[in-house]
Write a structure and sequence with these properties.
By secondary structure, the protein is of the alpha+beta class. 34% of the residues lie in helices and 20% in strands. It folds into two domains: 120 residues, Glutaredoxin, CATH 3.40.30.10; 101 residues, Sporulation related repeat (Alpha-Beta Plaits, 2-Layer Sandwich), CATH 3.30.70. Helix 4 runs parallel beside helix 6.
Length: 290
């Protein structure tokens, strides 16, 4: 009798936990509308908008749904400042958007200004705090149709003469870039593949061409990782260096870590010197898929 009661109590607790999870995720303001409808609403409301590419077989996507999108602070901020659209690759028509925006990694998050222009993107499972900071940074007047003055702007006294403007600058150590989980190798432009763990999941049509500009990153020397261990390592690297980190496939389900995304080899070398001073070694390479 006691065993039966314990089993019933355990089943009830699991049910409550499942309902709590579904309720938390359901509070995130995702919409499932067309890109045209989203752009129209964004212009009318002068809001930035998000395209979140996902699929039910994507384990990193499930992790975000169970953790990131259940965060109440993130949900409230997105509800007030963004339009969020979920693009489920299991549904008809979603592959068109996947090809249009060259999405070959899941999960992928694309951010658009209120005028519909793509301004930034990340291909990685994001923690709630990291995602919230990124969204706050992008929600600036330049990305709105009507610039928004800061709350204290109207309280500043008017000046009878022009106010002197003094600009303070400091040398930038690294550039700001978005993190990624896993990219395709340089030869996959001929046949782009949707990649999660080093194995092709679904091929898309040969309709892509390589971008003209090159970007450079640092391939870290030393350890190699399995996919799961590599994901944990790139999260740690992104948090420590505030740079994008990627998994670089070696074959046999082994990966190295790539850090940074720089427009010039000089910037990449500068960051490599910084890593060397922090007891990390590596080499500058052209980023795959860039």
């Amino acid at each position: 009798m006691n065993t039966k009661i314990l089993r019933l109590a355990l089943a009830a607790s699991l049910l409550v936990a499942a309902i709590a999870h579904l309720t938390a995720f359901s509070t995130f303001p995702f919409q499932e509308i067309s890109l045209e409808q989203t752009r129209s609403q964004a212009r009318q409301q002068d809001k930035l908008f998000i395209l979140y590419f996902t699929a039910d077989w994507c384990l990193p996507c499930r992790w975000m749904e169970e953790n990131t999108f259940a965060d109440p602070e993130l949900s409230a901020f997105v509800s007030d400042h963004y339009l969020a659209v979920k693009v489920d690759l299991n549904k008809p028509g979603s592959r068109v958007l996947q090809q249009q925006f060259d999405v070959n990694i899941l999960p992928s998050i694309l951010i658009f200004a209120a005028n519909g222009q793509l301004i930034d993107q990340r291909s990685a499972s994001q923690e709630a705090g990291s995602l919230l900071r990124w969204l706050k940074r992008l929600d600036k007047p330049a990305n709105h149709l009507t610039p928004v003055l800061p709350p204290d702007a109207l309280a500043q006294p008017a000046l009878n003469s022009p106010q002197a403007e003094v600009n303070f600058t400091r040398p930038a150590l690294v550039t700001d870039a978005a993190p990624a989980l896993l990219t395709l190798n340089q030869h996959q432009y001929e046949e782009p593949l949707l990649v999660l763990s080093g194995q092709p999941i679904a091929a898309v049509e040969r309709r892509f061409s390589p971008r003209s500009s090159k970007f450079y990153g640092i391939l870290l020397h030393g350890d190699t990782y399995t996919y799961t261990a590599g994901i944990r390592m790139i999260v740690e690297l992104e948090r420590k260096y505030e740079q994008k980190a990627e998994l670089y496939p070696l074959g046999d389900e082994q990966f190295q870590c790539l850090v940074g995304s720089f427009e010039t080899t000089g910037q990449a070398q500068q960051f490599l010197q910084y890593l060397n001073r922090n007891n990390r070694t590596g080499e500058v390479i052209i980023l795959p898929g860039k």
